[in-house]
Structures are given as structure tokens and as C-alpha cells.
Amino acid sequence: MFRSRSWFGGGLWKPKNPHSLEHLKYLYNVLSKNQVVSENNRGLLVETLRSIAEILIWGDQNDSSIMKQKCGSYVCVQLLQTLNILFENIRNETSLYYLLSNNHVNSIIVHKFDFSDEEVMAYYISFLKTLSLKLNAHTIHFFYNEHTNDFPLYTEAIQFFNHPESMVRIAVRTLTLNVYRVEDRSMLQFIRDKTAAPYFSNLVWFIGNHVLELDSCVRNDADHQSQNRLSDLVAEHLDHLHYLNDILCLDISDLNQVLTDHLLNKLLIPLYDAKPHVSSVVSLFLLSQVFLIITHEPLVRVLARIILTGNMDIFSQGTSDKTVASLVDKPFLEMVFNTLQCSENDYAALFALCLLYALGHNKGTHLKKINTCALFRHKRQETKHWYNILLVEKLIKIISYSCQSNSRIRLVTLELSIRLLTQLVMKNSQSFLHDCHLAAIEGAKEESTALLRNFYKSEEIFLDMFEDEYNELVKKPLNVEWLMMDHNILLPPTGTPMTGIHFNKRLACGEVERARRAIRVFFLVRELSLTLRGEEEGQLPLTNPQACVQVDNVLDLNNSDLIACTVASKEGQKIRRFLVIDVIQLILVEPDTRRLGWGVAKFVGFLQDIEVTGDKDDSRCLHITIHRPLSSSAANRVPLLSAKFIFDDHIRCMAANQRFVRR
Q: What single Pfam family name could you report for this chain, choosing any that match (predicted)?
């Protein structure tokens, strides 16, 4: 009659059997009622932890079936959850020391819970991660026992490095980083001697298998049917690289030496020759990510040397600096350069460009200390400046191909080629490009101009598109790091917008998109030409918003051509206004009552957005529609104003119409 309706209600009184499930329920209730540690309850909590540990140890040794029962599993979940909350809430270090004393927490850590239960697994790993957040130079000694050479918090956690649940894997990574950050020589020596080689070996093996899975997804999804799966695989791989970089950035030399060796010899170098190997596209993508994310000098310098100056002997002779520096032929660099050939498409070329960009921007490679004539420098005899002629000519070909009418080079590839070219041939805002190469760029600019003319008269909204594309280009310059996070570029280039892929990362679809592409190519190549010639842009954008008249601006209309008219809307409203037509705008003004010869703008519209038709029944009238400025991606043109303009006589009506025609 006194039984509580709560499942744990039976745990209000201490059971007689100290090793029973009922006693574990009772201990849970004690913890749940004491989730904030104080001087008054510290002794009770320590005794509770001791009792929990005792039950778990007794169960392991005598009757493990207790915890595997449904009710036992549920008790474990609640206990782990409550322990997690208890340690999360501790702010006082003295209280923390008190709870961690006597090794009770370590006894709970090493208990073999039923990890097939997802909830038990989730709360267990969360509990371990919470404990790792409490680690420092003082608390580490409660978890790492130097005398017994035992560190259960770390060794138990890393067993789950490849757990199927991403949440568990992420928690393990967080925990290991929290451990590595503690500056304790003996603990780090334990990790180096006992766990670093097997853990890093297994981790690299896991990443390598993940790479093979990613490569398989790319090979088998030419029709873009597995985008969600590919997105998850790329995101997971980026997490791996950031985790590796986080470890390397802690600058623990012993750990870094082991990790670097495993990465080079068991993952990165075998990308080119291991069986089963991955495709060249995926290889270039992965190597680009390595140089964009990881900056550890001993790793990226060796890898850069292999790519720039290495030969096939690297697979049999190892990765020592001496071996790399005695090398003559360069098959890896040759492969990268050959990939830049994109007369048919730019699928692989984009990744080769990304790799070259990443090599040049990684602060750990120190390209000046490597034989950089292989990539970024080729000495010129006639001047003090130099650059790699072969690479520059490859980039110029990509630029030239982009300007052809049937080009299958995406805008992102063109933009990255231009960025690399300027990096190669510019110094202190001055170009040292050969005249013949500069002439090739000027030729490409002329081709882009000719291509653009094809759309000038065929597209009704050409000027809107022209302005819109310029503004987009200025607002959103290429970010290579963000580009390489997009899984879509791993799939063959497609032309349909229904994939959801951004316009500059796919081929144009239809005449409007081909016009947009021609406009963007023109802007990019024009900007390159101006940069190489050291000239400033003085003509774009065509419309400077700061120079345009805005509604409610007060204008000096002295010596201006004004035409009086009545604006009759379709709703029947009539308003008397003065019409002003300047270089790019139609302006309707009303006189300023405070100053003679001045007026207030009440409506403005761009002349490029205006449609004018006469009235066959009244020679004093014009039907004028002013459209809203249109984004090139918009579907319909929405009028700002559609009205009948009634002039005082047919002469003034003709004068207004002639001004519209001249503009």
C-alpha cells in the first residue's frame, strides 16, 4: 500500500542485500536527490559511489546477468545519466577531489556495461567525456595510476574510436584531445609507449576504409542519386582531418612523430599506389583537403616534396628527406599537370587546381625551402623575375577554353585558374608576365567579349543580368576552403539546376544561364587583364547606386529639361508631376515649395527597365511600364509602375518619347 507509482519508488528504503538490483535502485535515488555536491552530502556521495562500484564489481565476478536484464539495463542508464549530471555540476575542486578519491569512479569506468544497448552506450560515453573535461595537472592522478601504469578513462574510451554511431566517435575524439592537453610527462609517456602506435594505426586504418567507401560512392553515382550519402561521407572525412590537425597542433613531439609516420606511410602515400587504390579525382580531393587543413610542418613538407619532386621509388624507399631530395623525375607532379588538360571537361582539373592552391597557401610547406622550380618558380634569364612557364601556359589554356562558346569549363574552375595565375606572376601588385603570355590573356578577353555580344540583343533582360552578375561576383568571391567542403564537386559536372548545385559549380542550362555564364566569364577575364596591366576598373558597375537619384531626394532642377505631365494609374488616380529623363533614370518630381527651381523626387526607375507604347486614340498620351530591377535568377518581371502619362500637348508627348528612344 506504500509502493510509489514511480518505477524507482521501491528504492526509498535501503535493501538488506547489498549486491541486489534493489540496492542499485536505492543508490540511484540517493544520487538523484544529491545532484549538487556540498560539504553536507560529500560523505554520502562518496559512500554511494563506493557502493555502486561494489555492486558492479560483484556483478562482474558473480552474476553478470543482473545488469543484462531489461530492468537492470534501465537502472544502468539512469545511473550513468545521474552520474553525468553530478560531475557536470561540480564547480568546486575540493568537492571533485573528494568524489574522485578511493578509485570508485575508475571502478565504474571499467565495468563491462551492456554496450549493445544504445542508451547505455550513449550515457556511458557521455559520462567519460564529462570526466575528461575535468582533467588538469592535478586531477589526472585520480585517473592515471603511474605505479600500476593504468589509465582506464583513456584506454576504455579509445576502444570505441570506430563505433557505428557518429556521436560516440565524436565523444571519443573530444576525450582524447582533452587527455592530450594535460601537461603530465608520465601520463603522456604512457600514451606514447602503450597506446599511441595501436590507436593511431587503427585510426588511420579506419580513415583509410572510410576513404575507400567515399571513393566507391563517387564511382557509382554518376547520376547524382546518392548525394546525401556522399555528403555524410565528406563531412565525416573532414572531421577526421580536423581531429588529426587538432592532435598535431598540440605539438606533443612523441605523439606527432608516431601519428605523422602512420599518416604518411599507411594513408597518404598509398593513395597513389595502394591496392585497392582510389580514383585520381578522389586522390586529388583528399590531398587538397590535407593541405587546406593540416599545417604540421614535418608532415606537409614531406608530402609536398613527394608531390613536387618525388618518383615511384618513394613506395619502396620510405619518406626520409634524403631519399626525396635525390630524386630526379617527377611522375606525381606530371600527373597533376596533365590533369589540367581540360579541353573536354574540367572534372579532374578543378581538383588539381585546388591542390596547387592549397600547396601554395599552406604555412607549413615552406615552398621556398623546397625545390620550388618544380611548381612555382622557373628562372628567366633575361630578367630578375621568374615563374613556371609550363604551369602558366596550362592555366592560360584553361582561361582561353573558358571563353569559347561550347566550353564545358565551370565558372569555379576559371576563377581558381585566374587566382593561381595571379599568384604565380604577380609580386607587390606588379606583373612580370611574358609579353607572349600577356597577349594570350588579351586574346582570351577579346574572345569573351565576342561571346558576350551573342547575348546582348537576344536576351530581353540582358542589362539586368549584367548588373546582377557583377554584384554577385563582387559580393561572393571564391572561397577555396568552402568550395572543397562541397560534396557535389566530387561528382561529374552536370548541367541541370534540379540537382541543387550552385550555378558556378555546374554547367549552364538553357539560353539564360548561358548568357549569365558569358557575362561572368567576361567580368573575370576583364578583371585579370586589368590586374596584369596595373590598371583600375573605371567603367563597372554600369550603375553606381550611390550616384543614382533616390525617392525623396531634393534636386536642383535649374537648367534641367522638365516636361509636365499627368500620371493616370489603372486604378483611376491622377497625379500632376514633372518628368525628368537623365542618363540612366526616369524621375518624377514635384516642385519644392521652399525653394524655387528645386524639386523632390517622388518616383525613380531605370530606363533599361521601361517599356513605352503610344496611344492610338490620343496623341498626347504614352503608356509607360517601369519594371522592378530583376535578378537574373528571378522568374517574372514585376512592374513598379504601369500608368498612362498625359502631356499638355502632342509636341511635349513626342519630345518625351524621343528622349526615351535616344536613351
A: CLEC16A_C
